[in-house]
Amino acid sequence: MKAFALDTLGQPGSIHDLPVPEPSEGQVRIKVAAAGLNPFDSAVVNGHMEGRMQHRFPLVPGMDASGTVDSVGDGVDELAVGDDVFGSVGKIVLGEGTLAELTTMSNGTIARKPSWLEHTGAAAIPVAGITALVMMDAITPQAGNIVVVIGATGGVGTYFVQLAASSGSTVVAVCSTDNVAYARSLGAADVIDYTSDDVVDAVAGRYPGGVNVVADMRGDKTVVAPARGDDPRRGPRRVGRRQRGPR
Fold this sequence. Notes:
Strand order of the largest sheet: 8-3-5-6-9
Number of domains: 2
Structural class: alpha/beta
Strand content: 25-35%
Oligomer: single chain
Largest sheet: 5 strands, antiparallel
Mean pLDDT: 90
Helix content: 10-25%
Low-confidence stretches: 226-236, 240-247
């Protein structure tokens, strides 16, 4: 089969001819229709996960995919050949990814794809969508809360804005000029354009009483400090990435 793979971390990959993978117990093999990429995949190919997880070479990147089951491993009773599915590979090793014509995936980390959902859309859901759900569980925003979302139109932010808005919270999206209309279409009640406004001043000026939550997809602590809630000693709840230095 054809697959995009790397022979060395941190170096450009290329199209490889690789053996067709066989599903192990609890796995299915799918014919990949679309693959999704996330920042984690970039970290993998650039070597940032070396020493943390086992790597197999040639390393095929990609955690997410949508496609059609073409082989079923032992112990899988819920799915059959011909079923359209989507999800993440669900493996403890890196390198057996989704940038390939065929890939194996754990039965426990995939689901049947709804017929109304296209493969390209389905492949974009797993890692980003689950991350947004985990963030929602961590903060449980309530109706009337003010939730500032930094990185509102990225992969995770796109899902998080919709989920937070559906909770009845007032969502304040932080994004660039090009994405202002998109952020509003997702359900943001207010938008701060970081290319033209100082985000700290905008948050403090528009919400002098403070905000309840800052959902941070970028790791930018400078926005959190002025967003004080009713308790100025503690400030708002913050959930998201740890700061990793200048970006």
